[in-house]
Amino acid sequence: MKSIAEPLKSVRQEIEKAAAAAGHPVKLLAVSKAHPVALLEAAYKAGQRDFGENYVQEALQKIADLRTHEDIIWHYIGPLQSNKTRDVAEAFQWVHTVDRLKIARRLSEQRPPHLSPLQVCIQVNISGESQKAGVTLPECEALAQEISQLPNLSLRGLMCIPRAGASEDELRQAFREMRLLQSRLRKDHPQLDTLSMGMSGDYLIAIEEGATIVRVGSRIFGARSPRKEPKE
Ligand SMILES: *Cc1c(COP(=O)(O)O)cnc(C)c1O
Q1: Domain limits for position 161
Q2: Which residues, 6 or more positions from 104, have their beta carbon under 8 angstroms from its beta carbon?
Q3: In angstroms, rounded to a whole number, what is the distance separating the alpha carbons of residues 120 and 198?
Q4: Contacts (Cβ under 8 Å, ≥6 apart) of 111
Q5: Pocket test for ligand 1, best of 29, 31, 227 (most atoms within 8 A of CB)
């Protein structure tokens, strides 16, 4: 089996250095979609606790397989459809991809009462791509206001996935807009402490621009075999 401990360690060291330079803590979310549970287990043994998954059925199986590791924090980072909100509300601690009120309401209603509130980020369509998930900058404020009223959700911050193939300048620009938006929203929502941005190709840039959670997959787990998005 591939060694996970080594790439995990070097990613951690880079993040620590960048976080120290940026002057704020940064959490590493290990994005384990499309990788077998044995690799998650190896990452867990190497100290990783936060895992990000994109596909509900695949994630539920992994969560069941690893249920004895009670200190794992599961983050849902995939597209959210109404018919999947119950599974997500029951099995995850974080959702990074909330982009409409209907989904937020369902997550709040379906969050089991014995669990702490679901930690959520609003996904922002920062590059303005028409086919992309996420709210536009002007829509974000209203959605934040509405989510903050929902009893079983705790609004923590903003998430983005910049345009694929964006240049470094474009990435920095996008990350800066996210940070500005966050500081505007914090006037009404001081608890907004999270900027979920940066992936394998750009997480150090994202940290320089203010990311507090970076979502790193292939740099840790290696390339994913190409797959069609499953119908869920
Ligand atoms: C797959 C994925 C990642 C990780 O991508 P890598 O380039 O493999 O690091 C991060 N965020 C989201 C939303 C993803 O879907």
Answers
A1: 5-221
A2: 98, 120, 143, 146, 147, 150, 153
A3: 17
A4: 89, 90, 117, 118, 152, 153
A5: 31
Span from the CA of 151 to the centroid of ligand 1 (angstroms): 29
Residue 231 within any structural domain of the chain: no
Q: pLDDT tens digit string along 42-79?
A: 999 999 999 999 999 999 999 999 999 999 999 999 99
Q: Domain holding 88: CATH number?
A: 3.20.20.10
C-beta of 79 in contact with ligand 1 (< 6 A): no
Q: How far is residue 137's CA from residue 75's CA, in Å, rounded to a whole number?
A: 23
Q: 219 C-alpha vs ligand 1 centroid, how far in Å?
A: 10
Residue 30 maps to a domain: yes
Low-confidence ranges of the chain (pLDDT < 70): 1-2, 227-232
Domain for residue 161, yes or no? yes
Ligand 1 atom having least distance to the Cα of 221? 8
The answer, yes or no, to whether any atom of ligand 1 lies below 6 A from the CB of 40, is no
pLDDT of residue 209: 98
Q: Does 179 fall in a domain?
A: yes
Say yes or no: CB of residue 218 within 6 Å of ligand 1. yes
Decide whether any atom of ligand 1 lies within 6 Å of the 18 Cβ. Answer: no
Give the separation between CA 207 and CA 6, rounded to whole angstroms. 21
- Say how many domains are in the chain: 1
